[in-house]
Amino acid sequence: MSTKTSIALAGLGRMGRIHLANLTGRCPSAQLAAVFDAREDVAREIGEQFGVPWTTTYEELLHNPDIDAVAIATPTGTHAPLTIAAAEAGKHVFSEKPISLDRAATVDVLDAVKKAAVQFQVGFHRRFDPDWVAGVHRIKAGELGEVFMFRTSLRDMIAPKAEFLAGSGGFFVDVTVHDFDTARWIAGEIVEVSAYGSSLSDPEGFAAIGDVDTAVVVVRFENGALGVIDNSRAAGYGYECSTEVVGSRATLRIDNPRRFGYEWRTPGSATVPLVADFEQRYPFAYQAEVEAFAQCVQTGEQPRCTGLDALAAFDLAQAASHAWRTGTTVKLSPQRVDGGVEYGALLSSH
Fold first, then answer.
1. The pTM is what?
2. Which of 122, 123, 215, 307 is deepest in the core (most CB within 10 A)?
3. CA gap 194, 20 in Å, rounded
């Protein structure tokens, strides 16, 4: 293997373009090796632009001996089969979340990558954002003390289009799953989940797909600490992702950054530019996660966000969905296993 990990990019939609920018110059340990997209004109354009092989046939990509790994940014329903095929071809895999909208398919993926002994990292980008990384480092060092309370917000400016929402897996799997991963990473495992949701920005549209656009989730951690997650698909003012952790010795607060550093002042008011979406909020995180994956391929070190982490977040999102639909509190029993933690099927609700 060369000093750079050769990574093929599968999928050239919005997330694919974010990874493309990083693979073509922003990651010292990675290089773009090839591109795949079902749309021939798109695959050809990008391949020719960056001087790499392009294809509309995924199998052709996997047969390329010069490729060390595949970054999968295709539609959600394809993540699982593409990951399994790559693993069976001996390619390491970075996959966008979720692995699948089906738990059994997710487990099949974990079995396949384990059997193939390849690296597998899932795209929970917050684990690579400089603000969260620095804060969690101090928490893990003991500076916060015992966690008393966890709070986080994730709000989109404008709801996605209806066609995306219909195949997203639902609000909790598509949105809150990020917060569940952050909660586990920062405050520990979760043993109770309650959830409340409403459809406010487009009541008829969300009712038609049986979903919500606004939710509050309350969780209890193993140590008894409480957590509150608030999410919105239509906050209006901009994109926000902020977190606060109250501990026995200190409190960590990560606020939503400005789009730019300046403030505009006029008589009686001051305004600051806000970020509009996740792409503006997390440029460094998306770069860092691909760089970290490339390094894991080279060193054999376990990725920071594993398949088991993705499965745990998915199970918690499913628990929240169940809690919202039934109006109950879902109790869970996280089990320590080799390589991480498993939640499994819902244990009980009341």
1. 0.94
2. 122
3. 38
